[in-house]
């Protein structure tokens, strides 16, 4: 058994119970190559809405904990649903908080892979486009390919388990590229 050399923090943009995107991250944890371990963050729902007035010492504990986890991670994997052609507010809120952290977000220069699942016919094409733009603005090293945009997600998961072979292959390829990018140092 290979001991993972690198740690990837996985963030789901969904807050609901049983979301496809969190299931996608659990599948990523199971499919990760031996050189990386994937830790699925418990959720972004504990973060308060970003408010500059809250930028006092001490910062909210949920914000500090997310920042610590990002700093410890060698790379990030973000799975986003699509809400009204964009990323969900919870995910944008988390990035906004991290972008304001004293000493930096922890995302600058960090390899980040993006994926997403939706029951719609377009998957998460528009949300991922916006997310990639936001991540680039905070200095993250966003992987361009492979793209994992799971459309008609209700047909690719069974009781929270990713069962679609093609999607599993795409996700495995994305994780392999993330592992290679981490190994190369960003």
TrEMBL record:
<dbReference type="GO" id="GO:0010181">
    <property type="term" value="F:FMN binding"/>
</dbReference>
<dbReference type="GO" id="GO:0016491">
    <property type="term" value="F:oxidoreductase activity"/>
</dbReference>
<feature type="domain" description="NADPH-dependent FMN reductase-like">
    <location>
        <begin position="8"/>
        <end position="153"/>
    </location>
</feature>
<dbReference type="InterPro" id="IPR050712">
    <property type="entry name" value="NAD(P)H-dep_reductase"/>
</dbReference>
<dbReference type="Pfam" id="PF03358">
    <property type="entry name" value="FMN_red"/>
</dbReference>
<dbReference type="InterPro" id="IPR005025">
    <property type="entry name" value="FMN_Rdtase-like_dom"/>
</dbReference>
<protein>
    <submittedName>
        <fullName>Chromate reductase</fullName>
    </submittedName>
</protein>
<dbReference type="GO" id="GO:0005829">
    <property type="term" value="C:cytosol"/>
</dbReference>
<dbReference type="InterPro" id="IPR029039">
    <property type="entry name" value="Flavoprotein-like_sf"/>
</dbReference>
